[in-house]
Design a protein that fits this description.
8-stranded parallel barrel, two-stranded antiparallel sheet, 7 helices, alpha/beta
């Protein structure tokens, strides 16, 4: 996978990933609003879990418009690959306790880009992510017993411990009201949001989506 993250130029304006999609209309709204990537969750423990048929519809309609990520948590690799037989994803996002060798094998067997998420406890957690030679890293909040989607944030100052390569995606508790501050502190390649733009788990709020995109755009505008 070496060099593939050269496709992601962190000097460009911050990109937006809208995650936890369960409805085609919401996916279209996200992509039309300017999303660099959309995400769908294939984890039974999530209130945003999407069924395979809907995921296939969303991915087929949008994979040429943006990146389409599938979020997996401690899934057997054969199950991940089986999902790809029905859902044309472009990024595999691993949000559990998967190790570096698992991620490398997933990339080799799928041919897709891989993003590994870590739940940040401290600077050591962030630095340890350098063991993952994936295309993207994600920093999310650590909440005991949960694997993301909690609406909780972590200390964004800890993002400074990230090695800088591959590009870093910031997640955890982002909303239209705090994303500008998050960008100024953490300076990520992209931001990822689910609960912060929802009316209910898996159901996006059009006004919150619009405000989130506007806040990111305004934060990137020259002073």
């Amino acid at each position: 996978m070496g060099g593939r993250h050269a496709l992601y130029d962190w000097r460009m304006p911050t990109k937006v990933k809208i995650c936890g999609l369960t409805r085609p209309a919401d996916a279209d709204l996200a992509v039309s609003g300017g999303a660099w990537a959309i995400g769908m969750v294939f984890f039974d423990g999530s209130p945003r879990r999407v069924d395979i048929e809907t995921a296939a519809e969303i991915a087929a309609a949008n994979r040429r418009r943006c990146e389409v990520a599938g979020v997996f948590v401690n899934a057997p690799l054969d199950d991940v690959l089986a999902t790809l037989g029905s859902v044309p994803l472009t990024i595999l996002q691993f949000h559990g306790d998967e190790g570096p060798s698992y991620c490398a094998e997933a990339a080799r067997r799928s041919g897709l880009k891989v993003m590994k998420a870590v739940r940040v406890k401290g600077a050591d957690t962030v630095r340890a992510q350098s063991a993952f030679k994936t295309d993207l890293h994600m920093l999310d909040a650590h909440v005991p017993g949960a694997y993301g989607g909690t609406g909780e944030r972590f200390d964004w100052e800890l993002a400074a411990a990230h090695p800088g390569r591959p590009p870093m995606v910031l997640s955890g508790g982002l909303t239209p009201d705090n994303v500008s501050e998050a960008l100024a502190v953490a300076r990520p390649f992209a931001v990822d949001v689910a609960s912060g733009v929802e009316a209910a788990p898996g159901v996006k709020d059009p006004d919150k989506l619009r405000r989130f995109f506007e806040a990111v755009e305004q934060a990137a505008a020259p002073a």
